[in-house]
């Protein structure tokens, strides 16, 4: 269960510059305006269901951790009207080093795929 929480916390470390100092508030504010954050989702759950922010956070963390654990155990996660998360094995292939142009072999690896359902695609395409 802690895997996703650790991933989300580690993503916050990317918000620091090379000196380990967080950028000014204007940078962070403009980034948060462009995306919906986990914090905003938690606040929305809290507001819509008369829960505390802490309770809403625990619920969201449980949902996300369950999705991550299931996918990591090779069990697809299907959420109606949303989509499917699944893990798959990519095939090895030949590629090129972008810096030198030298050919190289890219080994197979496990990857994650999200396939949105048609209802989700339809809503996304009807702006």
From TrEMBL:
Entry's SMART domains? BHL
In the record, what terms sit under GO molecular function? DNA binding; structural constituent of chromatin
Extract the signal peptide range: none
Q: Which Pfam families match?
A: Bac_DNA_binding
Keywords per UniProt: DNA-binding
The protein's superkingdom reads: Eukaryota
Family stated for the protein in its record? Belongs to the bacterial histone-like protein family.
Name of protein: Integration host factor subunit beta
Question: Upper taxonomic classification of the species?
Answer: Eukaryota, Sar, Stramenopiles, Ochrophyta, Bacillariophyta
């Amino acid at each position: 269960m802690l895997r996703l929480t650790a991933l989300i916390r580690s993503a916050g470390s990317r918000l620091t510059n090379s000196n380990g100092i967080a950028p000014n508030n204007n940078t962070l504010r403009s980034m948060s305006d462009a995306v919906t954050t986990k914090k905003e989702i938690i606040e929305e759950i809290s507001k819509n269901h008369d829960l505390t922010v802490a309770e809403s956070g625990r619920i969201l963390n449980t949902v996300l951790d369950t999705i991550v654990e299931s996918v990591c155990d090779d069990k697809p996660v299907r959420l109606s009207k949303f989509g499917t998360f699944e893990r798959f094995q990519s095939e090895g292939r030949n590629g090129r080093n972008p810096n030198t142009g030298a050919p190289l072999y890219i080994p197979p690896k496990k990857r994650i795929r999200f396939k949105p359902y048609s209802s989700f695609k339809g809503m996304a395409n009807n702006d």
